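It is worth pausing here to work through a concrete case rather than discussing structure prediction in the abstract. The textbook approach is simple: state the sequence, then state the predicted structure, then interpret. We follow exactly that order.
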Amino acid sequence: MTAVNTTPTTTTSNTTTSQQNLNSLLQKLGITPATSTTTTSANTSGMLGQSDFLKLMTTQLQAQDPTAPQDNTQMVAQMAQFSTVTGITQLNTTLSGIATSISENRIATAATFVGRTVLVPGSTALPDSTGAVSGAIDLPSSASDVTVNISTTAGQLVKSIDLGANAAGLVGFSWDGNDSSGNPVGQSSYTVSATMTASGTQSSAATDVYAPVTEVPIVSDSTQPQTLTVQGVGTVNMTDVKAIKY
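Step two, the predicted structure:
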């Protein structure tokens, strides 16, 4: 008698039965079984939500073999994984809403700067309505002597202010806009510079000036810094503002 190899037939039969069971399960869920012309996106289009997952799980339990029930550990693990994915999705949605809210609040906050006088890094000082000029010197370390020089835009020195010894940080200064004779100098803008002496060595120091904010550009990209347009200084980051006054 010639032996007959039945392995291919059994494998084919098992494969056919498994495919039939899968198609039957998908039909119960209202999902069209995949064919040779069905795309991956169409094959998964109906299984995107938590309700679809629960429906699939319920149907799977109903169709399970009573003699070989689903493993509880695996089911719990699957449910935990799905809950994690759902939580991450909800978190992303929440964070997106927070980012939008922050962006809107940032614009509203920046808008309140228009018309205000702010202290920002710069060397061009504009006189206020009384002709006075004010600002600050940003000392990186303590100094035994600090001097502020105020000149015209042409380079002519009109005022030198000795601020004496000061600790590190901002050191304010002001000038009434008058020369040594008490007469108004009357310039539309001035150039401010400063020197500091520390450990017997003299060096230049950074200056800040008070100037009005004339414009607040709206930044659509929340990752970009909010800027302000400051008269006489130009564009500065809102985070560079060191003081605000009317």
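Step three, interpretation. The two ends are 109 Å apart (CA to CA). Residues 31 and 46 are 7 Å apart (CA to CA).
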